[in-house]
Write a structure and sequence with these properties.
Layout lengths: L6 H27 L4 E2 L2 E2 H18 L32 H4 L5 H30 L5 H61 L1
Antiparallel strand pairs: 1-2
Helix pairs in contact: 1-2
Length: about 200
Amino acid sequence: MAIFHSSWFKYLKNFIIGVGAAIVLLGALAKLQSYDWKIFGMDLIDFGLYLEAGMFFLLGVIPPEKEYYWEKLYPGLDKYDSNVSAILPDAASSSESLPGLNGDRVDEQLSGMLTELQTMSRSMSSLKALQEADFSGVSDQIGKVNQFYSSLNDAMANIHDSLEDTKQYKEQLSALNRNLGSLNSVYGNILGAMTNIGK
């Protein structure tokens, strides 16, 4: 009977049931649409029904498998009229009878789980507070920030224009300076000539 509890047998059983059901459905579709689909010389629906009948027979013969063995922890659980009480490990036999159920380890695991649950609760509270927050004024704030940036861009453009104007002003002052220097030298020459004439 150990073969029925092996993982490859469980996989094979599920595979055959799934494939058989798919074949039955395709066969039913072929019948409804009047297709002439055959497999091994039989209509597809006939083959699928034979396969499913064989699989259901096999499922009837295979003993039901137990996923959990709770009767090891609660003796008599598998009997209808039994008085069920849990086996609790005492300090002396805890490591021998039920090695996985030592009290300190269970306490550690429970306290770890409690800490995780408290952390999750705090996170959920933060998420709820975030959900209930009022973000209605955010769009107005974003609009104001956009206006500020556009005003800042305009101011920067004006500064750039002012810098260009300042540069032109500086060039004009330099030209004026040169012209004044030329005028000074011409005026000096005229004064010199007038002085020479007066002698």
